[in-house]
């Protein structure tokens, strides 16, 4: 893909593993939901490899105790565990969820530079506004799309297309930033340029394997990528 960063007007960000490290709170919610039904427990490190495809797949991976979901998962049991997870995750606060270094400062600079910013996450929408508000991130974003805001979620490009169309932009105006292959695939499926972050959750795979146009080790390198490419 030919990239001209002079054309970028809108930057869409993933949430978990990109803007915030939410594993401790997600893992605690899962552990409590499983305990409510006298099931096995899970570790933070296990949960770290199960995030990225939305709550349903995350919880079915937890029930399977593996990133590969067992084909014989009891749907009724999943629904019961999902109900308890939603309750615990909504009511236990997000005290253990932290913003990654450089995120707030970088978002402030991007917004001041005139970019429109949005969040496109596979996390259920009901949890997202509160997390953004609690962590003092909400003021940066014009749009927030959750995993259940539309009929599909990443890597389907529907969410990215909806932002493009809402703001009367073109593919060349859009940039996707994320830590997971789902983010990069969504960008590729939409025909958008992408930046992959190495520090988040990607099932133990290097984000470079998904071939984003740029790879960054730290969130604030996004400023360098944009400014370097604009002046190149």
Automatic annotation (TrEMBL):
UniProt cross-references to SUPFAM superfamilies, sorted A to Z: HAD-like
Active site: 14 (nucleophile)
CC annotations in GO: cytosol
Cofactor list: Mg(2+)
GO MF annotations in UniProt: metal ion binding; phosphoglycolate phosphatase activity
Keyword GTP-binding in annotation: no
Keyword Electron transport listed: no
Alphabetized UniProt keyword annotations: Carbohydrate metabolism, Hydrolase, Magnesium, Metal-binding
Pathway: Organic acid metabolism; glycolate biosynthesis; glycolate from 2-phosphoglycolate: step 1/1
Top-level class of the enzyme under EC nomenclature: hydrolase
Domain of life of the source: Bacteria
Binding-site positions, Mg(2+): 14, 16, 179
Catalytic reaction(s) noted: 2-phosphoglycolate + H2O = glycolate + phosphate
GO biological process, one term: DNA repair
Pfam families listed in its UniProt record: HAD_2
Protein family (similarity comment): Belongs to the HAD-like hydrolase superfamily. CbbY/CbbZ/Gph/YieH family.
PANTHER family noted in UniProt: PHOSPHOGLYCOLATE PHOSPHATASE
Functional description taken from the UniProt entry: Specifically catalyzes the dephosphorylation of 2-phosphoglycolate. Is involved in the dissimilation of the intracellular 2-phosphoglycolate formed during the DNA repair of 3'-phosphoglycolate ends, a major class of DNA lesions induced by oxidative stress.
Record-given protein name: Phosphoglycolate phosphatase
Lineage, opening ranks: Bacteria, Pseudomonadati, Pseudomonadota, Gammaproteobacteria, Vibrionales
Gene: gph_2
């Amino acid at each position: 893909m030919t990239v001209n960063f002079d054309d970028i007007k809108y930057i869409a960000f993933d949430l978990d593993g990109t803007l915030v490290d939410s594993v401790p709170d997600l893992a605690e919610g899962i552990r409590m939901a499983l305990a409510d039904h006298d099931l096995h427990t899970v570790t933070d490190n296990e949960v770290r490899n199960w995030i990225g495809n939305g709550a349903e797949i995350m919880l079915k991976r937890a029930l399977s105790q593996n990133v590969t979901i067992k084909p014989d998962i009891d749907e009724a049991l999943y629904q019961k565990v999902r109900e308890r997870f939603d309750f615990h995750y909504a009511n236990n606060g997000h005290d253990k969820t932290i913003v990654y270094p450089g995120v707030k400062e970088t978002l402030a600079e991007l917004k001041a530079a005139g970019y429109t910013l949005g969040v496109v996450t596979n996390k259920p929408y009901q949890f997202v506004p509160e997390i953004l508000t609690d962590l003092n991130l909400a003021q940066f974003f014009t749009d927030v799309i959750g995993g259940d805001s539309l009929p599909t979620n990443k890597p389907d490009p529907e969410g990215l297309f909806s932002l493009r169309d809402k703001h009367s932009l073109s593919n060349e105006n859009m940039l996707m930033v994320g830590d997971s292959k789902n983010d990069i695939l969504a960008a590729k499926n939409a025909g958008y340029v992408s930046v992959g972050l190495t520090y988040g959750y990607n099932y133990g795979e290097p984000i470079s394997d998904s071939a984003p146009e740029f790879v960054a080790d730290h969130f604030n390198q996004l400023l360098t990528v944009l400014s370097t490419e604009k002046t190149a």
